[in-house]
Amino acid sequence: MSAALLPDPISVTVRAPAKINIYLGVGKVRPDGFHPLETVYQAVSLYDDVTVTDAEEWSVSTIADGVHVEVREVPDDDSNIAIRAGKALVAHHRLDDRAAAIQINKGIPVAGGMAGGSADAAATLVALDRLWSLGTADEELLAIGAELGSDVPFALVGGTATGTGRGEVVTPVEDNGSWWWVVVFSDDGLSTPSVYGAYDLLEGGDHDYRIRPQMLEALRAPANGEHLQVFLYNDLEDAAFYLRPDLQAVAEAALECQASYALLSGSGPTMLALAADADSARAIAGRLAERGYDRTAVVHGPVAGAHVVAYG
Ligand SMILES: C[C@@](CO)(OP(=O)(O)O)[C@H](O)COP(=O)(O)OP(=O)(O)OC[C@H]1O[C@@H](n2ccc(N)nc2=O)[C@H](O)[C@@H]1O
Ligand SMILES: Nc1ncnc2c1ncn2[C@@H]1O[C@H](COP(=O)(O)OP(=O)(O)O)[C@@H](O)[C@H]1O
C-alpha cells in the first residue's frame, strides 16, 4: 500500500540509543563557556523509547525500562529536555497551537554520562515530525538538536561518528567492528559542568587533543588494523577521578577482571570496559559482580540512531 493511503498515526514510538565516547579530547574553554571537543561517539545497545500522542497541553511522564534505571531525577515539567525538543520543533514550523503528551520508557541510566536526555530529545524530534507529517529535513533536525544539547545531533545520527565543535558537529565514520562493552553504573551522579570545571583547574586543555587517523583506521578495518584499545582515551578522566576517586578503583577492577581496557564514559560517572567478544563481556561482568560491582550492563555498538519502532 502506498504511504499516501495510510491514515495519520495516533501515536508514534521512536527508539534512541545511549552513547559512549570511545575518544574524548578536550581543548581550552571557549568564551561561551563550552569546551572545543574532538570526540569519537559510538551508539550502544541501551535505549530509551519515546511515545508521542496529540494533546491539548504539553506533558511528559517517565517509567523505568531497565534494571539499573532510577527515574526519580527526571523532571516531569517543561524543564524535561523532551518537552523542550517538542516546543523547539513547533517553533521551527510556527505551529504554535500544537502540543503533545510524551511518554519515556527509560533504559538509559539518568545522569550517567550516556546522554539519555539527549536520546529523549532526539527521539521526540523524530516522533513528532512523523506524528504531524512535518517532513523536516535532516539538516534542520540536526540544527534544532544542536540548540538543545551538544550530544543531541549524535543521538539522531547513531552508529559511530566523530564530534567536533562542542560535540554537535557530527560526521559518521566507517566502523566495521562489533564492539562489546561492560558498562559499570554508579550509585551517585556526577554533574557534567563540575567535571569540565575540574578539568579547567587540573589540565586546562593546553595540548594536542585531536583524534588520531590510526584510530579511525582501527574502526574501519578491525581485523587487520591496530587494536582499538590503544586509542581509547578520555581527557575528562583525571578530573572525574579527582572528584570521585572510587571510579579509578572501578577501572583497576575491570582490568583485573580481564577487560582489554577500561575508561570513563563521557563526563562519567559510568565506566566502560572493552571486551574481546560477547562471552568475554559476560564473563567480565560476572567477575565484577563477585567484587561488588553488580550494577552493570553488557552492550554492543555501533547501533542505529533515533528510529521509529511503532505507529499506533
Ligand atoms: C561530556 C559529554 C561528552 O559527549 O557528554 P556526557 O558524558 O555529559 O553525556 C558532552 O560534552 C556533554 O554534552 P551535553 O550533556 O549535551 O552538554 P550540554 O547540555 O550541551 O552542556 C552542559 C554543560 O556542559 C559543559 N560543556 C558541555 C559541552 C562542551 N563541549 N563543553 C562544556 O563545557 C558546559 O558547562 C555546559 O553548560
Ligand atoms: N528526558 C530526560 N531524561 C533524563 N534526564 C533529564 C531529562 N530531561 C532533563 N533531564 C535532566 O538532565 C540531567 C542529565 O541527564 P542525562 O542525559 O541522563 O545525563 P548525562 O548528561 O550525564 O548523559 C538529569 O539529571 C535530569 O535532571
UniProtKB/TrEMBL annotation:
EC number from the UniProt entry: 2.7.1.148
GO MF terms held by the record: 4-(cytidine 5'-diphospho)-2-C-methyl-D-erythritol kinase activity
Class of enzymatic activity (EC top level): transferase
Catalytic activity: 4-CDP-2-C-methyl-D-erythritol + ATP = 4-CDP-2-C-methyl-D-erythritol 2-phosphate + ADP + H(+)
Sections of the chain in a coiled coil: none
Pfam families the record matches: GHMP_kinases_C, GHMP_kinases_N
Keywords from the named record: ATP-binding, Isoprene biosynthesis, Kinase, Nucleotide-binding, Transferase
Active-site residues from the entry: 19, 151
InterPro entries (UniProt xref): GHMP_kinase_C_dom, GHMP_kinase_C_sf, GHMP_kinase_N_dom, IspE, Ribosomal_Su5_D2-typ_SF, Ribsml_uS5_D2-typ_fold_subgr
Pathway involvement of the protein, from the record: Isoprenoid biosynthesis; isopentenyl diphosphate biosynthesis via DXP pathway; isopentenyl diphosphate from 1-deoxy-D-xylulose 5-phosphate: step 3/6
Ranges of residues in domain GHMP kinase N-terminal: 81-159
Binding-site residues, ATP: 109-119
Segments forming domain GHMP kinase C-terminal: 215-293
Highest taxon listed in the record's lineage: Bacteria
PANTHER family: 4-DIPHOSPHOCYTIDYL-2-C-METHYL-D-ERYTHRITOL KINASE, CHLOROPLASTIC
Membership in a protein family: Belongs to the GHMP kinase family. IspE subfamily.
Function description: Catalyzes the phosphorylation of the position 2 hydroxy group of 4-diphosphocytidyl-2C-methyl-D-erythritol.
Protein name per Swiss-Prot or TrEMBL: 4-diphosphocytidyl-2-C-methyl-D-erythritol kinase
Origin species: Nocardioides bizhenqiangii
